[in-house]
User: Fold this.
Amino acid sequence: MATNRRPFVADRANDLVEQFGSPLYVFDEARLRENYRSLRAALDDHYPDSRIHYAVKANYNLGVLSVLRDAGAAAEAFASCERTAALDAGFDPADVLLTGQNRTRESVEAALNAGVDRLLVDNETELETVRAAAAATDTRPGVLVRGNPAMELPTHPDIATATRESKFGLDIESGRALTVARRAAAAEAVRLDGVQLHVGSQITAAEPYAVAARAMVEFAAAIRDETGVEIDVLDMGGGFPVAYDDAVPATGDVLETLGDAIRGACDAHDLPEPRLLVEPGRRLVAEAGALLATVGVVKDTPHADFAILDAGSNLVGHWPYPIHAARGGPANRRYHVAGPLCYSGDVLAEDVELPELSRGDVVVVDRVGAYALSGASNTNATPRPAAVLLDGYGDPHVVRERETCADLTRHDVVPGHLSE
Ligand code: PLP
Assistant:
């Protein structure tokens, strides 16, 4: 995958900032649809009996969710309000897979009452919570047991989840995962539907998916041998990578490796091939989003030339996003591109080659569609930007209004003895 492609919004950046202000998130409906379509096509090629559950956490803007729902995606909701966002965006409750790690019984009951029918359990306490909630709501949801095969992974340790050190999943090797599966199989209030794992995020090689798939099929075989239950669903989570500054394996290659591994392992363990679920977040939305920002100050220091924007690193996270200038011209200058916040680490990228910049120039921070808006903070009491969605004709629609200073203190309360 090429990494130096011009951003989808490059030619429109100045006009959009003029119309909607700066900074501004821009999402591209055509690219969201294409991301879904190409992933679906790769699954059709390599494992047709499958379903894409978009990981809502990556970007839960209702406009973005609505596009993916309309394109055909189901949803994966880790937290209660991800579930309500998915339902508000019109996802069918039966298409919402509830994951999570530490849910209250009330939130599980609310999900079951709303029609959610399949949940993940990450630990024994969660299984008890789901059982109690199912009994209280007179439902019998499907349960997936989250396994952890203690892998070595090619990604940042903070986002590697199927490792021995991780807080996620139930260790397979020690038998903890099988114990919970046995309890789920014996519980009247739930159906044991399958097994799940999420390898981690931004997994830049195909092989970890094969290793994980073999471990999970072996786990499914152990469940069958122990309980007699032949599981229907294998959920391999998300993690499909996006090219920020480097090429990454094509999704088709990753899915080919994954599909072959599942079929091979099922064969070896004499298991029927399960339905495959995947939970991609980044792969569907990252390249469909950009942040437009405006240069306010260009400052030369003995160390570097800084281009200081009106958008800080609190709005994008810490990936090596490609940064472009909206103005044309040869990229013959190097800048540290920084935000306006009060700490030195507020630098979006160092040594970026750009045309000569001056106050008022618009820059495009590209591929920020995942985990940027959904992780943005109000550091330095900065209101978060507006967002627009470009529809299939390129027409902009506001999908999130710009916050105001009043929004930042809306939930604060001054005690009576201090108010005038
Ligand atoms: N599924 C689960 C359970 C996750 O925790 C995550 C990310 O943290 C995802 C899916 C999505 O990961 P990605 O955006 O890398 O595809």
Notes: The CA atoms of residues 69 and 336 lie 39 Å apart. Residues 207-227 form the longest helix (21 residues). The chain is about 30% helix and 20% strand.
